[in-house]
Amino acid sequence: MSDALEQDFVRQLRENQNIIHKICRLYTSGEDAHKDLFQEITIQLWKAYPKFRGDAKFSTWAYRVALNTAITLYRKSTRSVATTEYDSSRHFIRQEDYNYEEEEQIKLMYQAVYQLNDIEKALVFMYLEDKDYAEISETLGISEVNARVKMNRIKTKLKKILNP
């Protein structure tokens, strides 16, 4: 990979790493698992970056890769994925600290979201990120109508979980 392409990847990753942290928070419980998933998503983004054509925004593409990686890794805890070493210090990517204590207000919401299936989690995450249904449907590979219907069902499900 050329140095220019590598530098562009590092810049894009720095600008969008909060997306990855949020996905890690959604699909893991605990700091070690969060860090492991963050690293695996970074590696998968790095491997796939040469094929990124720019048809969609980097953030949309990163959502897709990150969600697919999270779903693949955590759907079955017994499944293992081959990883590749990636020296982030060489590229000066600093993983920002993620403070779990700071988010006490949304802890209950996360607990409710943990009870959803993988696709429902992804849809809720993108909805909470203020993504429109066009971007949600493009990222998840479903129609806009299907995304709206699923979201309405998820809202009802979450209300029942939070207010039994």
From TrEMBL:
Segments forming domain RNA polymerase sigma-70 region: 14-79
Q: Does the keyword Cell inner membrane apply?
A: no
Keywords of the record: Sigma factor, Transcription, Transcription regulation
Domain of life of the native organism:
Bacteria
**Which InterPro entries does the protein's record reference?**
RNA_pol_sigma-70-like (IPR039425), RNA_pol_sigma-70_dom (IPR014284), RNA_pol_sigma70_r2 (IPR007627), RNA_pol_sigma70_r4_t2 (IPR013249), RNA_pol_sigma_r2 (IPR013325), RNA_pol_sigma_r3/r4-like (IPR013324), WH-like_DNA-bd_sf (IPR036388)
Coiled coil ranges (UniProt) are: none
Protein's UniProt keywords contain Transcription? yes
Please report the stretch or stretches of sequence annotated as the RNA polymerase sigma factor 70 region 4 type domain: 110-158
GO biological process, any: DNA-templated transcription initiation
Any GO MF annotation of the entry: DNA binding
Family the UniProt entry places it in: Belongs to the sigma-70 factor family. ECF subfamily.
Q: Which PANTHER family match?
A: RNA POLYMERASE ECF-TYPE SIGMA FACTO, RNA POLYMERASE ECF-TYPE SIGMA FACTOR
NCBIfam families in the cross-refs: sigma70-ECF
Q: What is this protein called?
A: Sigma-70 family RNA polymerase sigma factor
